[in-house]
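During the reporting period, we have paired protein sequences with backbone structure tokens. One record among many follows, to show the layout:
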Amino acid sequence: MRGFGLSVAMTLVLAAGQASAASIDLSKPYGDKYGCINRNGQEVAADQMLLLTDKELITAASACTFTKTQAQADGSLVVTATCEAEGEEGQAPTNFTIKRSAKNAKKLTIADADGNVMGEVSRCK
């Protein structure tokens, strides 16, 4: 039975290593075309825009500041944020899920609390 315990422990260590290797690194910004163009401030007006950093998610109509980020076993991130919408007073709490795109591992998808995909972003150059 000693060999079995060691085997299980090694499997857990390997699984943990794979999960951390697949984790999402937001140390550099991700965005769609207009999100990356506007990452240093509003340079170009756009009806559609997504910019994702380690601290916030900015769209054409809202700005969300992250209050909590949790890594999931599958490598995705669940983010709790407070958001301000253009033309509205106050802030509202919400959750987002950020995960690797099924179509392209270099891209990320962002989904709202209901699972609706808001868009796909690439690392800004």
